[in-house]
């Protein structure tokens, strides 16, 4: 599976793994892919700095990337307290009523209440990037379109390529004009922020549209070597996998004492039909695991989601309560349709081995049909 | 591209082409694929009989298939006149008002008014199959789930395999239990009746679920050799392509004197973003070209679509008026996201040649990455 792109990054396989977990990201890099740490959860730059120190020390000198989330349209800036004032009372009442109806208890008094994700504010993402450049990122990715030009220029001045997501050809063309090095063609089936065009159509369209101006990774629906072979058949030079790592053994965010979390148990039980594309997580359309929580927002009488960044601030404490309640039926988690193939908690190295072996078997099988 | 499935059908390539046009179906069969004639438009069995006579004489002895549409839940039976009485007046008023607003003129007095599609009534589909078995179909496909058991048995008694669409693993499992020979995994991106799971995820899921019990074709988003290679990488043994043949040079349904139609001009101009999944064509969710007509049905105040078969009877005359108006902005046509790659009117044989050549180039490219 080694190709020119892998060679360029100094990795064995062109498998890029987006994950909010530094443990998973490091394990992917050690196993021959490129682990890309999602930074949006780090409201505190010092916490990110410490985490990247850990990455530097736990990746055996292998490259890794970092991922920020800067929306093209700069969202309303402000502290969490200021922004909180913009949230309508009826939205808060709906959230509290829904949590009560779903049997999600309030937080106990001794727990510090979460402020919500501020990483998609440009000010916070810039602080995250300032920290990142003090380390040795091999890639800066923006999980929403092109970042501002000065960020691209700064990354290039450090010799670091920049990647951006695209859900349509027009986005990809715009990224290339903005100087983006790697376009991640994110299909409809992907978890998190996603558009409406499925990978089978989107990937070759974007490959044809950008030509030699940019490298294309395929994202969405990938969790097996057959799917990697399909993505490369469609013309991508590598794959960007996100959801699939949420059930990695190394993933520990939100875990209880036994090592797994209610979220992981919900992911293991879900089929490919158990996701929904909704604005309730961040304010922009994102594919989430379908649970009683997401269903409540699609009932008659439920309010419309607020714009980014307000929606996540609205539901931040709800997410914290949901995690604490440890109920797999009430989970708030971005996940793609590949969740139907996530049926086991496995170490990253085992998964990587299977992906590569199945890819090679698939290519051999196809080769018997060519010519 | 020749494989065991192609061998079994006596065709060169495992490319199955669904089309309502006998001219396109015959051209595909002559070019080495399997043309599958959509019968749902034939309310009159004698017209179908004459068309299949034409197919018998114009396929150079090559095999072809026929496609009917029998919903699993038997729809309300009745003549067009009886069924018409079940359509609410407010729905009729909305259709007439919308056509007026879109500038679609009434039919001239000398035109015979269409009754609408009755082919999805079981009684009509059975009559179509009675006709088909007098000819030499190599495949009976049902474009909606398993047909009734006696139909499957009759096909098998003629030595004809039966195919059915599946949009989820559960449908595929049920098809296998019902004795279906070929499961067509129809992804979200497909034109016409379709589910919510994209091909990248759906195809390998269905392949794994049915195992050796059935053959799997991939449908949805296929219009290039790269996409055929991707479908086969995902584990399908062949592909089922529908939308892509709507811009074949041989396609003549609804054409004006110059040989093309407003529908074809609309298809040529559309991008992959210009489709919508809606119940307004047949009463069941189907992906259509997005036009001013489909947009009108998603405006506030528009009525909900009626169940099958009433919805198509409701819009039958509207469809006829739309075709007569020859306005590419107001078109009512099932089409998949692959429409973005349909940019030229081309003879079927040229398209087939390109599909095969690009498939072989793709396999050769992948082969350099394997091992």
> What structural category do the secondary elements of chain A indicate?
alpha/beta
Uncertain ranges of chain A: none
Oligomeric organization of the protein chains: homodimer
| Number of extended strands of chain A | 11
Overall 3D shape of chain A: globular
The greatest inter-chain interface is formed by: A-B, 48 and 48 residues
Largest sheet of chain A: 8 strands, parallel, barrel
What's the architecture of the largest domain in chain A in CATH terms?
A: Alpha-Beta Barrel
State the name of the first-level CATH class of the largest domain in chain A.
Answer: Alpha Beta
**Strand percentage of chain A:** 5-15%
| Number of spatially distinct domains of chain A | 2
How confident overall, as mean pLDDT of chain A? Answer: 93
Number of helices of chain A: 14
User: What order do the SSEs of chain A take from the amino end to the carboxyl end, as H and E?
Assistant: HEHEHEHHHEHEHEEHEHEHEEHHH
CATH fold descriptor of the largest domain in chain A: TIM Barrel
At the fourth level of CATH, the homologous superfamily of the largest domain in chain A is: Aldolase class I
Keywords (chains A, B): Flavoprotein, FMN, Monooxygenase, Oxidoreductase
InterPro entries (chains A, B): Aldolase_TIM, NMO
GO molecular function (chains A, B): monooxygenase activity
Protein name (chains A, B): Nitronate monooxygenase family protein
């Amino acid at each position: 599976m080694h190709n020119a792109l892998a060679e360029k990054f100094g990795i064995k396989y062109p498998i890029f793994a987006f994950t909010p977990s530094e443990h998973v990201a490091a394990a992917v890099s050690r196993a021959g892919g490129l682990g890309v740490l999602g930074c949006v959860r780090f409201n505190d730059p010092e916490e990110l700095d410490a985490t990247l120190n850990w990455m530097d020390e736990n990746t055996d000198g292998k490259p890794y990337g970092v991922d920020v989330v800067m929306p093209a349209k700069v969202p309303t800036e402000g502290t969490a307290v200021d922004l909180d004032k913009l949230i309508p009372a009826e939205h808060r009442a709906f959230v509290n009523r829904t949590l009560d109806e779903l049997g999600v208890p309030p937080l106990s008094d001794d727990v510090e209440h979460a402020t919500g994700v501020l990483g998609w504010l440009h000010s916070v993402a810039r602080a995250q990037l300032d920290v990142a450049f003090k380390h040795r990122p091999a890639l800066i990715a923006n999980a929403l379109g092109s970042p501002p030009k000065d960020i691209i220029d700064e990354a290039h001045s450090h010799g670091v390529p920049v990647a951006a997501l695209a859900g349509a050809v027009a986005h990809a063309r715009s990224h290339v004009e903005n100087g983006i090095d790697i376009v991640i063609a994110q299909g409809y089936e992907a978890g998190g922020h996603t558009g409406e065009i499925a990978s089978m159509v989107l990937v070759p369209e974007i490959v044809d549209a950008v030509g030699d101006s940019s490298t294309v990774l395929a994202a969405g629906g990938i969790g097996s070597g057959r799917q990697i072979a399909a993505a490369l058949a469609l013309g991508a030079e590598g794959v960007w996998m996100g959801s699939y790592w949420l059930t990695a053994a190394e993933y520990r965010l939100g875990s209880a004492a036994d090592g797994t979390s209610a979220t992981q148990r919900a992911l293991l039980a879900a089929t490919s039909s158990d996701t929904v594309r909704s604005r309730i997580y961040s304010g922009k359309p994102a594919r989430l695991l379908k649970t009683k929580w997401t269903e409540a927002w699609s009932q008659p009488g439920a309010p419309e989601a607020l714009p980014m960044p307000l929606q996540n601030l609205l539901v931040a404490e709800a997410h914290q309560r949901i995690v604490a309640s440890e109920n797999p039926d009430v989970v708030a988690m971005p996940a793609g349709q590949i969740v139907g193939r996530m049926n086991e908690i496995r170490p990253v190295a085992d998964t990587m081995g299977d992906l590569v072996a199945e890819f090679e078997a698939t290519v051999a099988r196809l080769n018997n049909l060519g010519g």
